[in-house]
Amino acid sequence: MGCGTGEHALFFAERGHEVLGIDTSSLAIRKAKEKAATRGLRAQFLVWNALDLAGLKRTFDTVIDSGFFHVLSDEDRPVFVKSLATVLAPGGNYFMLCFSDQNPGEYPLPRRITQEEIRETFREGWLINYIKPAVFENAVQPEGHHAWLSSISRTGLG
Asked: Does the predicted TM-score (pTM) go above 0.85?
């Protein structure tokens, strides 16, 4: 989900998993495809909107998201959850890493997410297995940013 240049997808492909990475950036997808070819890895990458996952006409046991959820507007969150439910098999897991409200300061971006926002967004048809404090590593801030790592399963109900 929002795979960027594909590092997470390629990590799983290298370990033998079948992967599909999507992003709305054609430049990022081109770079992800180039990396896969250079490394000799089988991975599929598509320019695609995560708010329209039904169009993929596929289902997955696992979806990973490292830095996508926190860019969604309040209005897009329920659209995304409905979209996600169309591709995640019942019992499947959605693993999400997003910026946390525990980050200090008053900067507006990246958007900071509370645990309650996660729980509210995934309250119907989902089971929150855990929301744990984590660190979002990046090149901008050497110590990283506070984040929430969530494991959320689709129940198929609701």
From this structure: yes
